[in-house]
Fold this sequence. Notes:
Distance between the termini: 46 Å
Amino acid sequence: MAHRLNIMLDDAVWESLQQLPKGARSRYISRAVEERLRREQRQKAAAEMDALRDNLPPLGDDIDVVEMLRKDRARDDA
Length: 78
């Protein structure tokens, strides 16, 4: 379902947008907004993962990560 939206654009953006065929402008803007929203969501998720990583104790070189995951999963299953 599509929704109508009134927005304000800078003159330079408007002039560039005028170069597109009239039928393609809405699709172009919709795709651009969608891509920007996805990028911001990915950046937010990455920042949250970084914050979580900062709160975890560092793994030593002698830690077997696979074995650690197996133990953690076994604990969750119990």
